[in-house]
Amino acid sequence: MGDIKKVVLAYSGGLDTSVILKWLQETYNCEVVTFTADLGQGEELEPARKKAEMFGVKDIFIEDVREEFVRDFVFPMFRANALYEGVYLLGTSIARPLISKRLIEIARETGADAVAHGATGKGNDQVRFELSCYALNPGIRVIAPWREWDLTSRNRLIEFAEKHQIPIAKDKRGDAPFSVDANLLHTSSEGKEMEDPWVAPGEHVYSRTVSPMDAPDVATEITVEFERGDAIGINGVRMSPADVLTKLNELGGANGIGRLDLVENRFVGMKSRGIYETPGGTILLAAHRAIESITLDRGAMHLKDELMPRYAELIYNGFWFSPEREMLQALIDKSQTHVEGTVRLSLYKGNVIVTGRESPKSLYSLAHVTFEEDSVYDQHDAAGFIKLNALRLKLLSKQR
């Protein structure tokens, strides 16, 4: 352990990572650099600086990465309409490669020879952090205290904090609260009563959305504008990527949109139950699929849908920086060249209802689909089309 001189720690300022900070200093007798990312979690981050200073940390990095997060990670993922196991919008998964990227960059800037994270040995995040770090710097040391120390219970964690005069918030004493992860894309809650998949979550679990039952009785109508597959404006007002998602969160949250109660299959092998809120992402997915419906060729759309589960699984499992994810991204980005236009949506009591879509690059031809008389489609051609497609079925039927 003595060969580690400096460690960059992904630091939230909370109880767990504060204990980790002190434990690293004691166990490895090393200098610790802290990195705290503003991903839009909605928390004041300056207290993290004060806590780090209290531990004698000299290099403290607190950075607003919301624009980079949405522009370079969330939006590329949404171009693929990525859903893990058909429903999960990957809010936690997509934040980890960005945090890892900055950990490695800061390690390079400060001359650190290791990075550390606060993910436990039971979850997916340890995999995501470490695969990303090794992909970006194969020689880096990664320290995962939850897999090394003997602080295996909450009481031991608090005892360590008290011994080293680490401030403990009142809500951290007593029974362990449920765990919450938040960023600009979503919130996720796990643990405590939610560990039983039969027990319905109480309203206290939700922080970003009103209950659909309490949402307004009048629908909210909005438009979302797209260029090359990315949302670039709402209601005719052009916005930055982070501002688009922030506004969609506000609109979705007020209308009870984006709640998900999910039992998922973790990469490490177990099933877990989580409660997710992704109001803006839920609206964005519906809007993106709507604009693709009139701008993407059938073959391109169907190929994307076939590849999407694989793409989503790569992100969920921590392979954002893998060559296969980058290959798929190149294909997906190519498909978005003409995905531009406007989608109109109605938001009502937890529902996102597409009511219109238009695009200067539309492939929708009213002349071909009209029920009225037309001069561009000869219906007699369909007979030969059907006969040729039926040929193999007829031959197979005779064989039987």
Shape: elongated
CATH fold call of the largest domain: Argininosuccinate synthetase, chain A, domain 2
Largest sheet, in brief, is: 5 strands, parallel
Derived structural class: alpha/beta
CATH architecture of the largest domain: Alpha-Beta Complex
How helical, in percent, are the residues?
Answer: 40-55%
Relevant CATH superfamily of the largest domain? Argininosuccinate synthetase, chain A, domain 2
Overall tally of domains: 3
- What is the N-to-C succession of helices and strands? EHEHEHHEHEHEEEEEHEEHHHEEHH
Strand content: 15-25%
- Per CATH, the class of the largest domain reads Alpha Beta
Instruction: Please compute the radius of gyration using only Cα atoms.
Output: 25 Å
Average residue-wise pLDDT: 94
Spatial strand sequence of the major β-sheet: 3-2-1-4-5
Count of DSSP-assigned helices:
12
* Low confidence ranges: none
State the end-to-end distance: 71 Å
DSSP, total strands: 14
EC number: 6.3.4.5
Catalytic activity: L-citrulline + L-aspartate + ATP = 2-(N(omega)-L-arginino)succinate + AMP + diphosphate + H(+)
Subunit structure: Homotetramer.
Enzyme class: ligase
